[in-house]
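Q: Hi! First time doing this. I have a protein sequence and I read that you can turn it into a structure. Is that right? Here it is:
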Amino acid sequence: QVQLVESGGGLVQVGGSLRLSCAASGRTFRSYHMGWFRQAPGKEREFVAAVASWSGLSTHYADSVKGRFTISRDNAKNTVTLQMNSLKPEDTAVYYCAAKRSLSLSLDSGYDVPTDYDYWGQGTQVTVSS
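A: Yes, that's right. Below is the predicted 3D structure, encoded as structure tokens:
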């Protein structure tokens, strides 16, 4: 089992930056693909970014965050990070970290599908004020 705890959310002005972290328990962290999702009030949970297991060389981003957000992982520290720059009001949401079991070393199909993930954190609120 994997337990995930997010941190780093908060209130930031338009154009500002935030760095979200997700701390994972368990000795098998490196074997999981990791993803960030977000959910705004009244909207469905949506994909933000994902990083492949092990070396984390494969990453994918939602079109809405490409060029502004960067996902990375540190297997030695059992953490995955989402660096968010040039924040916009539409980035306001609760951000969730998720872990997906996979035998593939690269992100396979379903990396952007919430129901494909096996473990979730409790979420952290990000609010971007204009």
